[in-house]
Amino acid sequence: MTDLSAFPITQRWPARHPDRLQLYSLPTPNGVKVSIMLEEVGLAYEPHLIDITKNETWGPEYLSLNPNGKIPAIIDPDGPGGQPLALFESGAILIYLAEKTGKFLSADPAERYQTIQWVMFQMGAIGPMFGQLGFFHRFAGKEYEDKRPRDRYVAESRRLLGVLETRLANEGGEPRDWIIGDYSIADIATLGWVRNLIGFYEAGEIVGFKDFPHVAAWLERGLARPAVQRGLEIPSRT
């Protein structure tokens, strides 16, 4: 049996199945990237719910796995060379799992790097900007009398939706079903954030989501996938 006792996080969240990949997460737009990917590729894994509302990511056990104190993170007991590997940052985890399983990341060098660039687009633009809009539109920031911060993130979120719309519309050719050719980690990285923008953040009207029909169709296709539906609820909040 695999021994994960060298990882302090297992003292707080014990591994009942240490031979399985350990997922430490919460069903947020960042968290579900990894649970969706794991459901898509079919790897055996054990999810642990990390309650960010109770500041569990700032305890010493979690920080031993991710010093940045964010979810998600994983421990793969069967990492490179058969040795356990701890990994944080959702984009890095998606690339790792794609390479480990040979799924959702093309082996063709050009397409591979194009896919990674769209993952980075989500990581560096869509996630941070949509998250800021959520704060100023739905959460504490909505009480601010000065609406300039909110309007800044509305405009930037709308611009980013436009980038995605142009990509999917593929002017001069057939509209794309997915961001890069076949369904890939670029789609997995982005689906939860667009869903959250118009759902949990209730920002669909303020960003004019109706103006992006190709994004809406892409989102519908993605959310119809059974693995996506399962991954959106993992780890269970109950």
From TrEMBL:
Residues 18-105 form the GST N-terminal domain. Residues 108-238 form the GST C-terminal domain. It comes from the Bacteria. PROSITE patterns: GST_CTER, GST_NTER. Belongs to the GST superfamily. This is Glutathione S-transferase N-terminal domain-containing protein. The lineage of its organism: Bacteria, Pseudomonadati, Pseudomonadota, Alphaproteobacteria, Caulobacterales.
